[in-house]
Amino acid sequence: MTQIPTPLTIRSSKYDGSFHYEYSGDLIESIRHNELGHIWKCRIKQDSMIQSYRGTLEARASITAYFFERQWFNILVPEMPIGRRQMTAYANVSTPAYVRHQLGGDAYVLDWIDLDLDLIQLETGDVLIDDEDEFLEHQLSMRYPQWLIDASQSGLDKLLAFNFATHEFLSVDAD
């Protein structure tokens, strides 16, 4: 179902509640998918300011982002390959996302928790798993419960099962 773009703030934190990222985007479509559940399709414009735990940076390309209400990941697909490795898609293993009204206003916020593991697809077609060391470190320092570790691994396994850069994951079983 297509809709009028709705501005929203996209926020992520780490499992211990610490700040990770915050940036602005537009909710451009709300999708009901038989297998994947509710998906929020968002657009992040090139040169958008991204507040990060590392400081402020700019989006290097416009990005289509997919956030899932029932899946343990989210997917970001830039309109052109970016970075020294020419990335064509990026996926975060994360908690399922949720959208809420910001208190005291009409603004929407999309929240999710980053669980360290990332999947990077390169222009060559190669797929890399990134930050496995961070995932292992945070299991101890942030005391990840076993159910969270299992859910993270399940999210990663599901991501590896389909070619997320081509949006093929949306082509079957949409309502």
Topology at a glance:
Elements: E1 2-14, E2 19-33, E3 37-44, E4 49-52, E5 55-58, E6 63-68, E7 73-78, E8 87-94, E9 98-101, E10 108-122, E11 127-130, H1 132-141, H2 146-160
Parallel strand pairs: 1-10
Antiparallel strand pairs: 1-2, 2-3, 2-4, 3-6, 4-5, 6-7, 7-8, 8-10, 9-10, 10-11
Q: How would you characterize the overall build of this protein?
A:
This protein has two helices and eleven strands. It has helices at 132-141, 146-160, and strands spanning 2-14, 19-33, 37-44, 49-52, 55-58, 63-68, 73-78, 87-94, 98-101, 108-122, 127-130. Strand 1 (2-14) and strand 2 (19-33) form a beta hairpin. The model has no long low-confidence stretch (mean pLDDT 89).
Describe the biggest sheet?
7 strands, mixed, barrel
Strand content: over 45%
Q: Provide the residue-averaged pLDDT.
A: 89
What is the architecture at the second tier of CATH?
A: Beta Barrel
Enumerate how many helices there are, as a single number: 2
What is the rounded Rg? 16 Å
Question: Keywords, please?
Answer:
175 residues, mainly beta, FomD barrel-like fold, seven-stranded mixed barrel, 2 helices, 14% helix, 50% strand, globular
Task: Offer a concise description of the structure.
By secondary structure, the chain is mainly β. Helices cover 14% and strands 50% of the residues.
